[in-house]
Amino acid sequence: MTAESVIEIAQYAMRTVIFVAGPMLLAGMVVGLVISIFQAATQINEMTMTFVPKILTVFAVLVITLPWSISQLTCFASSMFNRIANM
After folding, report:
1. CB 80 within 8 A of CB 20
2. In the chain, what are the domain boundaries?
3. First-to-last C-alpha distance (Å) of the chain
4. DSSP assignment, residue 5?
5. Selection from 26, 9, 8, 4 nearest residue 77 by Cα
6. Is the pLDDT of residue 12 over 80?
7. Going by C-beta distance under 8 Å and a sequence separation of 6 or more, which residues neighbour residue 31?
8. At residue 1, does pLDDT exceed 80?
9. In principle, which of 15, 18, 27, 42 could form an S-S bond with 61, CB 3.0–4.6 Å?
């Protein structure tokens, strides 16, 4: 195993993690930003007002993107198993 193949595997793993976790993180950030703007405009500083919508949004995005995420992770795992078999 060369250094180039290790770097390639690490890049592929990082890309897969970003693709799988990205939609949930992005949705949580957008909802958090919208709620913080609303709180700044209305001067309501309730802490639970930020957590509950973020949790619900992240869960909804997880449910919506779950089939695609599983296919991405399955593709990554099968690629890694093929690399191990070829060594």
Report:
1. no
2. 3-86
3. 8
4. H
5. 9
6. yes
7. 53, 54, 57
8. no
9. 27
